[in-house]
Task: structure prediction
Amino acid sequence: MPVEVEIDKRTTLARVGQSLFECAEQMDVQIPTSCIKNGKCRECLVEVSEGGELLSPISPEEEHLQGRFRLSCRATISANSGRISCHTLRREKMRIEQEARHLPTSFQDTPLNPAVTRRGKSVLLDGKSIAQGGAIYGVALDVGTTTVAVRLIDLESGDLVAASAFENPQRFAGSNVMSRILFNSENKGRLQQRTLTGYLTHALEDFPVDTTQIYEMVVVGNTTMRDLFFGLDVSGIGQKPFRSITEVQLRNGERASTAVASTGRRLRLPIHPDARVVGLPIISSHVGADAAACLLSVDLARREEPMLLMDIGTNTEILCGCRDQLLVASCPAGPAFEGGAVSCGMPGLKGAIERVAISATGESDYRVIDDGPAEGICGSGLIDLLNELVMQQMIDANGRYVDGEDRFFLDRSADIYLSEADIAELAQAKGANSAGIKIVLDRAGLTIDQVDRLYLAGGFARYLDTRAARGIGMIPDIADGCIRQIGNAALEGASIALCSLPHRDLLDSLVRRAEHLELEMDEHFFDYYVDGCLFAGVN
Result:
């Protein structure tokens, strides 16, 4: 009997010796590749969720991969029957936040003053001719730990031409920044950089323009993601004092800013060879260029009243202040609220439970993304579920089930549940965020009631129910009218910097005067953290 192979929810029958890449071709599933099945580009990644034992042993080209990842051109069918299920990292249905909303400013509001201009037929970069004729485009790029978002902008009109997003293929090296730093130190050849730029190349080539007419790219991301993109040594970010090599060089007087720059040619991107690729400055340590870019999108330089911004993710960045003061901190929350380290957790994909309600009798009701069968629970669903468990007094303050069971089933037939171990992972994540907020407010001399606006940035924050998030202590207890869920503010900030050189200068000045707080060094951190791990409102 042939083996049934499922890739991205499509199925086919396969024979012994056939590769997963060939199976994908049979089903018209596109898997990124630059070497056409030769095992050299390392781009044709798939994550195998079922039937891994039915595949050939790991090949030499795959020895760098972690977990359940395989190269689809190297992994071949080795059994005569059974079922294999896997997915690519270009799933179109994954919820990846590309837009920004409820912001005081946007790149389209920003006076157009880019580095790339035209004089007659000449295309100029910083006043120097690099091309003749044609359109003038720029790209804003947000490299997240989990996802990547791209915008193509016409630099003469300021119009958004196209946008794209995909899962960060660097997940083969681990789900968090520390695992990727370790991977980079143990493996040569800049495999993470090569894989990411390979995927980005495909995304750019899918845009409806001549990519050689892209003359500048502005890149943001957390410190590790930004530095990996540019091929920098990231080992210093993973050990005390946790600094990017650009921070070290700035402190030594070897550079004027933590911003970095390269070219399309050096990064092997399909843009103009002399195009400039700029990595915006990081603020400090794990508060990266993505957090810095948010400062432009919330127009911090003109804010008179204090604001609080949380970019919630695997590493949550907290920014607090106004035009006269800026405090920043990072919270190592971990991947729990993004579906990692949770038994039935998953990204925001079709099949993910995104909303949960529990009745007084303990019966659950839920909503699934795209209304299909439930396959797991994504971040917004996890927050809803925790809040419902608190509201119905089904767990105690320590996250233990009061009925003596070790898990609660949302759907027994689908085997979807939340265990006490899962609750502990989620409690630690929210505890880190809660401690970070309290310490930042303490240092700013503020109470939450004195904060004019709470901005919640990022894809995860876009979909959470703020009432439920307040209920479990994930975010501060602040009035609904003060909360703005602003989406991808980092990408918006990158777009502003792409369209306006004066705003890049402004960002440099904001970054230089930011005060970075090392949370673990605060005398109250442990107490705040322990308190934040508890579930308020539970007796």
The mean pLDDT is 92. The first strand starts at residue 3 and ends at 7. The radius of gyration is 24 Å.
